[in-house]
Amino acid sequence: MRVKVKSWNTVAIWRWEVNDDICGICRNPFDACCPSCRVPGDDCPPMAGQCRHTFHLHCIVKWLSSDNNPEQLCPMDRQPWRK
Ligand SMILES: [Zn+2]
Ligand SMILES: [Zn+2]
Ligand SMILES: [Zn+2]
């Protein structure tokens, strides 16, 4: 259920308009942070690609920089990842 709160700032609204509520890489929800972070917060936002898959910023950055993924593909559908 999505509650619209007019006074919320746009960043907060955007954060909740993700297609999925868990990260496809670490499987943690987006209201928690990735395994690399100790506390949830704005330093670890969800990041959506053009394929509409959404991951923690740190998770997708780590994935894209991995030597196992030289073509920089989305881990969910193996399409080239584009922001
Ligand atoms: Zn994650
Ligand atoms: Zn993080
Ligand atoms: Zn994808």
CATH class designation: Alpha Beta
Any idea what the radius of gyration is?
A: 13 Å
Going by CATH, what is the homologous superfamily?
Answer: Zinc/RING finger domain, C3HC4 (zinc finger)
Give the number of DSSP strands: 2
Distance between the termini: 26 Å
Query: How many DSSP H or I helices?
Result: 2
Averaged pLDDT: 81
- The gross shape turns out to be globular
Bound molecules: zinc ion
How much strand content do the residues show? Answer: 5-15%
Proportion in helices: 10-25%
- The fold-level CATH name is Herpes Virus-1
Number of domains: 1
* Main β-sheet description: 2 strands, antiparallel
Order of helices and strands: HEEH
How would you describe this structure to a colleague?
The protein is of the alpha+beta class and 83 residues long. The protein has a single domain, classed as Zinc/RING finger domain, C3HC4 (zinc finger) (Herpes Virus-1), CATH 3.30.40. It has a two-stranded antiparallel sheet with strand order 1-2. The longest helix has 8 residues.
